[in-house]
Design a protein that fits this description.
There is one protein chain. This protein is an all-alpha fold and about 140 residues long. The protein has one domain. It is about 60% helix and about 0% strand. Helix 1 packs across helix 3, helix 2 crosses helix 3 and helix 3 packs antiparallel against helix 4. The longest helix has 29 residues. The protein is elongated and about 75 Å long. The relative contact order is 0.13. The model has no long low-confidence stretch (mean pLDDT about 80).
Length: about 140
Protein backbone atom coordinates (compact mmCIF):
# COMPACT_ATOMS: atom_id res chain seq x y z
CA UNK A 1 0.00 0.00 0.00
CA UNK A 2 1.46 3.34 -1.05
CA UNK A 3 1.28 6.51 0.95
CA UNK A 4 -1.24 7.87 -1.57
CA UNK A 5 -3.56 4.89 -1.01
CA UNK A 6 -3.33 5.41 2.74
CA UNK A 7 -4.18 9.12 2.42
CA UNK A 8 -7.10 8.39 0.07
CA UNK A 9 -8.47 5.87 2.55
CA UNK A 10 -8.19 8.34 5.40
CA UNK A 11 -9.97 11.02 3.38
CA UNK A 12 -12.76 8.65 2.40
CA UNK A 13 -13.33 7.60 6.00
CA UNK A 14 -13.18 11.14 7.31
CA UNK A 15 -15.24 13.06 4.75
CA UNK A 16 -17.28 10.62 2.70
CA UNK A 17 -20.08 8.47 4.02
CA UNK A 18 -20.20 5.38 1.78
CA UNK A 19 -24.00 5.27 1.70
CA UNK A 20 -24.47 8.94 0.83
CA UNK A 21 -21.60 10.42 -1.14
CA UNK A 22 -19.23 8.39 -3.22
CA UNK A 23 -16.67 10.22 -5.30
CA UNK A 24 -14.42 8.63 -7.89
CA UNK A 25 -10.90 7.78 -6.79
CA UNK A 26 -9.56 10.31 -9.32
CA UNK A 27 -11.43 13.09 -7.54
CA UNK A 28 -9.93 12.14 -4.19
CA UNK A 29 -6.45 11.99 -5.72
CA UNK A 30 -7.00 15.37 -7.37
CA UNK A 31 -7.99 16.92 -4.04
CA UNK A 32 -4.74 15.62 -2.51
CA UNK A 33 -2.77 16.91 -5.52
CA UNK A 34 -4.28 20.40 -5.19
CA UNK A 35 -3.48 20.57 -1.48
CA UNK A 36 0.07 19.35 -2.02
CA UNK A 37 0.60 21.98 -4.73
CA UNK A 38 -0.53 24.73 -2.37
CA UNK A 39 1.79 23.44 0.35
CA UNK A 40 4.67 23.37 -2.13
CA UNK A 41 3.97 26.93 -3.24
CA UNK A 42 3.57 28.15 0.34
CA UNK A 43 6.92 26.67 1.41
CA UNK A 44 8.81 26.96 -1.92
CA UNK A 45 9.52 23.22 -1.75
CA UNK A 46 8.93 20.17 -3.93
CA UNK A 47 7.37 17.75 -1.46
CA UNK A 48 6.22 14.46 -2.96
CA UNK A 49 3.84 11.71 -1.93
CA UNK A 50 4.66 8.14 -2.84
CA UNK A 51 2.26 7.00 -5.57
CA UNK A 52 1.15 10.49 -6.64
CA UNK A 53 2.13 11.35 -10.22
CA UNK A 54 4.51 8.39 -10.38
CA UNK A 55 6.58 9.44 -7.39
CA UNK A 56 8.49 6.63 -5.72
CA UNK A 57 9.43 8.52 -2.56
CA UNK A 58 7.57 10.31 0.18
CA UNK A 59 9.18 13.60 1.19
CA UNK A 60 6.21 15.26 2.89
CA UNK A 61 7.05 15.67 6.60
CA UNK A 62 4.71 13.97 9.06
CA UNK A 63 3.83 17.36 10.58
CA UNK A 64 2.27 18.37 7.26
CA UNK A 65 -0.10 15.40 6.85
CA UNK A 66 -2.91 16.88 8.95
CA UNK A 67 -2.67 20.12 6.99
CA UNK A 68 -2.71 18.20 3.71
CA UNK A 69 -5.81 16.23 4.73
CA UNK A 70 -7.62 19.38 5.85
CA UNK A 71 -6.92 21.07 2.52
CA UNK A 72 -7.95 17.94 0.64
CA UNK A 73 -11.15 17.82 2.72
CA UNK A 74 -11.90 21.42 1.74
CA UNK A 75 -11.40 20.47 -1.91
CA UNK A 76 -13.63 17.40 -1.56
CA UNK A 77 -16.49 19.33 0.01
CA UNK A 78 -16.16 21.96 -2.72
CA UNK A 79 -16.23 19.21 -5.37
CA UNK A 80 -19.34 17.68 -3.77
CA UNK A 81 -21.05 21.07 -3.66
CA UNK A 82 -20.23 21.72 -7.31
CA UNK A 83 -21.57 18.30 -8.29
CA UNK A 84 -24.71 18.88 -6.22
CA UNK A 85 -25.40 22.29 -7.74
CA UNK A 86 -24.59 21.35 -11.33
CA UNK A 87 -26.61 18.15 -11.61
CA UNK A 88 -29.73 16.43 -10.42
CA UNK A 89 -28.43 14.26 -7.61
CA UNK A 90 -30.18 12.45 -4.81
CA UNK A 91 -27.46 13.55 -2.39
CA UNK A 92 -28.86 14.88 0.83
CA UNK A 93 -27.62 17.92 2.64
CA UNK A 94 -28.10 21.59 2.42
CA UNK A 95 -26.00 23.50 -0.13
CA UNK A 96 -25.51 26.36 2.34
CA UNK A 97 -24.17 23.96 4.96
CA UNK A 98 -21.82 22.36 2.43
CA UNK A 99 -20.62 25.81 1.32
CA UNK A 100 -20.01 26.84 4.93
CA UNK A 101 -18.16 23.61 5.69
CA UNK A 102 -15.98 24.02 2.61
CA UNK A 103 -15.20 27.64 3.55
CA UNK A 104 -14.38 26.64 7.13
CA UNK A 105 -12.06 23.84 6.01
CA UNK A 106 -10.36 26.17 3.54
CA UNK A 107 -9.82 28.76 6.27
CA UNK A 108 -8.52 26.09 8.65
CA UNK A 109 -6.14 24.88 5.93
CA UNK A 110 -4.69 28.39 5.63
CA UNK A 111 -4.37 28.64 9.44
CA UNK A 112 -2.50 25.36 9.50
CA UNK A 113 -0.22 26.52 6.67
CA UNK A 114 0.56 29.69 8.59
CA UNK A 115 1.29 27.70 11.74
CA UNK A 116 3.62 25.35 9.88
CA UNK A 117 5.33 28.32 8.25
CA UNK A 118 5.91 29.99 11.63
CA UNK A 119 7.29 26.74 13.02
CA UNK A 120 9.71 26.45 10.12
CA UNK A 121 10.84 30.06 10.51
CA UNK A 122 11.49 29.57 14.22
CA UNK A 123 13.62 26.52 13.50
CA UNK A 124 15.54 28.19 10.67
CA UNK A 125 19.21 28.97 11.14
CA UNK A 126 19.60 30.77 7.82
CA UNK A 127 19.67 34.52 7.39
CA UNK A 128 17.36 36.52 7.37
CA UNK A 129 15.38 34.34 9.77
CA UNK A 130 18.22 33.52 12.13
CA UNK A 131 18.37 35.40 15.44
CA UNK A 132 20.50 38.52 15.29
CA UNK A 133 21.98 40.63 18.00
CA UNK A 134 20.57 44.11 18.55
CA UNK A 135 23.04 46.58 19.94
CA UNK A 136 21.22 49.29 21.84
CA UNK A 137 22.82 52.73 21.99
CA UNK A 138 23.22 54.13 25.46
CA UNK A 139 22.22 57.69 24.55
CA UNK A 140 20.07 59.12 21.83
CA UNK A 141 22.76 61.50 20.56
CA UNK A 142 25.30 58.86 19.56
Amino acid sequence: MTKLDELCGRLSKQYLEPSAAALPQETIVESIRLSLERINVWFSERFEIQGLDGSTQDTLPDDFVACLLTGAGANLTRFMLQAHLSSYTNMGGEPELMRDLSAYLEERFVWMLEGLRLDSLQKSVDIPFAPWKWEEKLTWRT
